[in-house]
Amino acid sequence: MTARVLMYSTAVCPYCIMAERLLKSKGVENIEKIRVDLQPEQRAEMMEKTGRRTVPQIYIGDTHVGGFDDLSALDRAGKLDPLLQGA
């Protein structure tokens, strides 16, 4: 059972694609995406929730991970798998 993954993204965002690739390599089948380029009001909500204006902004369960660099750092630290397993 993997935790729910939510990603704020845009259509042409290389970091979004890399984040998605990393998550899929970890066995994440379903990434709930919110396209802030199609729904500008969602960008405002994202900025309010995360304090950041860049995409991707990734949530695993209730945890705000941050962007691709944050996700990658979590993985290197060995903390991504437990988070994805809902630990």
TrEMBL record:
Biological process annotations from GO: cell redox homeostasis; cellular response to oxidative stress
InterPro entries on file: GLR_AS, Glutaredoxin, Glutaredoxin_subgr, GRX_bact, Thioredoxin-like_sf
SUPFAM superfamilies per the UniProt record, alphabetical = Thioredoxin-like
> Which molecular-function annotation in GO is an example for this chain?
glutathione disulfide oxidoreductase activity
Q: Name one GO cellular component term.
A: cytoplasm
UniProt KW keywords: Cytoplasm, Disulfide bond, Electron transport, Redox-active center, Transport
Q: Which residues form the Glutaredoxin domain?
A: 5-65
- Gene3D superfamilies per UniProt: Glutaredoxin
- Provide the function of this protein: Has a glutathione-disulfide oxidoreductase activity in the presence of NADPH and glutathione reductase. Reduces low molecular weight disulfides and proteins.
Q: Which family does it belong to?
A: Belongs to the glutaredoxin family.
Return the protein name: Glutaredoxin
